[in-house]
Every structure is written in C-alpha cells, then in structure tokens.
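Entry type: protein chain
Record version: 2
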Amino acid sequence: MFPALIRIAAGLLVMAIFGFVGSVASQERIRIGWAGVSPANSPIWVVQENRYLKQQGLDAQVISLSASPIAIQAMLAGELDVIVTSVTTLVSARLAGADIVMILGMVPTFVDHIITQPNLTSFDQLRGKLGGVNRLGSTSDLGLRVALRRKGIDPEKDVKIITAGDNPSRLAAVSKGIIQFGIMPEPFVREAEKIGLKDFFNIASLKIPFWWNAVLVQESTLRSKRPLLLKFTRAMMEAVHYIKTEKENTKAIFSKNLKLNDPEGLERAYRDYSGIFPENLLPTADGVKTMLDDLAPRNPKAAAANPKNFVDTSLVDEIEAGGFLKQLYKREQVGKATAN
C-alpha cells in the first residue's frame, strides 16, 4: 500500500514540476525600463499593480531607472526591450544614428507648471531671475524654455536657467531663494502652494504638441518581437482605461508610487493626468516636430529630419482594427448603463 502511495505522490510531484515549467515557458519575457517618478508614468504603475502584462502572457521585468540617458543606453546595449521616456530621448538618439522609434504616445503635451516665489506676478518680472530645471537639455528644460518664448521671454537672454535636480530638490531651491522660479508637475505644485509659493503658470494651457512621455523601441525589436509588443500595447491600453475609469483606485496607486498621502495633491494629480492620456496611445508626428523645430537652428540634422520617420503607428493601428479598444470602452459603457 505504502509503495503505491509513494508512486502516486511522486507522479503528482513530477506533474506539478512539469506544469510549473510549462507555465513559465509559456510566458514570453519582456524587459521594460522607465525613468522619472511622476504620474506621467502611471500607466506603467497600473500595469504592474494589476498584472496586465501577466494576463497578456508576458513575464515582465520592469525596472525603474534614475534618468532617461541610462534607459536609452541600456536599450541600445540590448539590456531592455522597451523604455518609457520622452521625445527628447527619442530625437537625440535617432539624430545620432540609433534605430529608435516611438510606438506609443502617452502624454502629448507639456504638463508641468511654472512655480515662483510669491512676489512674482507677471512674466516680465521673471527677467533677470534664476530658474531651475531637472537638468539642462532635459524635457523639463525644453518645456520651460518653450513656455517662456511663447510668453515673450527669451530664455537665453532674459533669464538664467540652471540644473536644480529632481522635483523635491527644485521645490526646496525655490523655497530657499536659491532660484526664483522652477518647473514641476502636480502633485508637487500642491506641495509648493502649501509652503507659500505661487502656482505661476500651467504650461499645459498652451497646448503645445510634445510627447512628454512615450514608449520607445528599437526598430529591430519591433520587427523581431512584434507579437510580444502587441501584447504589451494591449496591456498599456488597459492601464489607461483603468486610470480613466477607476479614480479612487488610481489615486491609491499614485499615493503608493509617489509616497504621498495628501488628498488634495492626489486629486490634483489625477485631474491633470487622467484626461491627458490618449485612449488609443497613438504616436503622432506633431509632438516630435516641436522638438525638431527647437533644435533646428543649432542642429542641421534636426532641420532636415522628417518627424514622421520618428513614429510607428502600426501596433496601435493593428489593435484598433481588431476592435480591442472598442470592446474595452464598450465594457465601461455597459457598466454605466447597468448602474443606471
């Protein structure tokens, strides 16, 4: 009797092991890097929190990196399949000869605010003042310079802009008077107001086409791992749908990743970001053109570049043609109708 039981147990153990190995083997591996602790990256947070990649059959390694240059270097070295970063990284890498392309557009405009010391009330009063950005040449740097130009201030002559570090560092620098103005998103704007600083100007109000955040891959990866990237795209679309339809749960994910518990700050962050993500995440050339136009006077390659060559819409086009998005948002409509 006992030998028979042992044989049965051994058989079940072998089946369990092979079942586990088969399950792991069925999961395709994808390596994703993202940089910047900001709600602009919240679709990645939601994808992780809700395990959308696993539901798509992907074994995902999601890595938070300190800066976009590290992300692009890791991808070019073959250590990442996908990176989530801005058009600034895309353009600089492609102009340098890398086969980088945008496959998903996430945040299609500048979302930062200009924060100032409380005594500054007009753009003219910024003349002669010192401003701070994350680092020179970064997305925040470009956003501030473009906004200043649109408001009649020459960022090269009328003000001085310096590297002031991440959002908390810039906030501290303005509050201590080290710089007189800086650029940052919600919920840090709320934190600035709490210590007496001024929410001087919302750059999003200018509606400047610019991919503040996007998904980039190498064109060689797009060709060789297309089925995997289609699954990744569906997971990201599900995450955006979740952000748009699950307000309180999304704010909880914001709180977890931003390490922030202020209800007003979380509400304002949700307000700024939930409506800005495109439902279909379609990458468009206009958000690349803004970057190229800014570089063109100083960079002949940028002046000659065609922004359409920087984006590939084929993944989004294929998924939309298959009805995935319609079905996704139809579920939301059905849910509302049932609730009513």
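Comment: DSSP finds 16 helices and ten strands in the chain.
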